[in-house]
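JOB MANIFEST
job_type = single_chain_structure
chain_count = 1
residues = 69
[input]
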Amino acid sequence: WKTYTDRPAVHVTELSDDATKSFKAFLVLSENPDASHVEFAVAFSADGKTYWDNNKGRNYLIRTCTRGV
């Protein structure tokens, strides 16, 4: 990646259960107005271990678009 920014997330207990954990984070997509997309992966640390989710090696992807005037 050419650039990256770490963003905090908050555990959402009401959407979590024994099999899955849910988190909420805010991504700022307008920091680079020329960007056509944002790629990201998720890291979670617990009990001294870090777990990564990178969409099976493809990263998660959000495509940006401009709204018609």
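[summary]
Residues 53 and 64 are 22 Å apart (CA to CA).
The beta strands are 9-11, 23-25, 37-40, 42-46, 49-53, 60-63.
exit_status = 0
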